[in-house]
Amino acid sequence: MATIFIRDLLLRTEVGFNEHELGKKQDLLLNITIHYELEGEQISDDPIAALDYRSICKTIVDMVEEHRYNLLETVADKVVKYLMSIERIQKVEVTVDKPHALRFSRSVALSLTEERK
């Protein structure tokens, strides 16, 4: 088992349901932890065998930035469901931060975790 950490993936999308949020893109920071099965890439040093985190990240960027969301929970759930659709991935944790969501805080964050049974 191996773990990949995607840290501080900065995305812009419409998120929120309050009047002042509607029709405006806002920053979201995603932190993603992916636990997955190795398939010998650590021995072979073969990029073809490795989990392609670049294409995974690109898919997440497209998925989040091309849609509008009311809730951080929905953003996190969509990302978790996508990641768990990849067979070698055994467990994921996705944290979505919404910077400056509250006046006196750096951000509000929500985290979802899912694991194969």
Distance N terminus to C terminus? 15 Å
- For the largest beta sheet, what order do the strands appear in spatially? 3-1-2-4-5
- How helix-rich are the residues, as a percent range? 25-40%
CATH class: Alpha Beta
User: Order of helices and strands, N to C?
Assistant: EEHHEHEE
Radius of gyration, whole Å: 16 Å
Mean pLDDT: 90
CATH superfamily: GTP cyclohydrolase I, C-terminal domain/NADPH-dependent 7-cyano-7-deazaguanine reductase, N-terminal domain
Question: Main sheet?
Answer: 5 strands, mixed
Strand percentage lies at 35-45%
Judged by helices, strands and strand pairing, the structural class is alpha+beta
CATH level-3 fold name: GTP Cyclohydrolase I, domain 2
Number of strands: 5
Q: What is the CATH architecture assignment? A: 2-Layer Sandwich
State the helix count.
3
How many domains? The number is 1
Q: What does the overall shape look like?
A: elongated
Show unreliable segments: none
Write the layout of secondary structure elements.
Elements: E1 2-15, E2 25-36, H1 41-44, H2 53-65, E3 68-69, H3 72-84, E4 89-99, E5 107-115
Parallel strand pairs: 1-3
Antiparallel strand pairs: 1-2, 2-4, 4-5
Overview of the structural elements:
The protein is an alpha+beta fold and 117 residues long. The chain has a single domain, classed as GTP cyclohydrolase I, C-terminal domain/NADPH-dependent 7-cyano-7-deazaguanine reductase, N-terminal domain (GTP Cyclohydrolase I, domain 2), CATH 3.30.1130. It is built from three helices and five strands. The chain has a five-stranded mixed sheet. Helix 2 packs antiparallel against helix 3. 15% of the residues are buried. The model has no long low-confidence stretch (mean pLDDT 90).
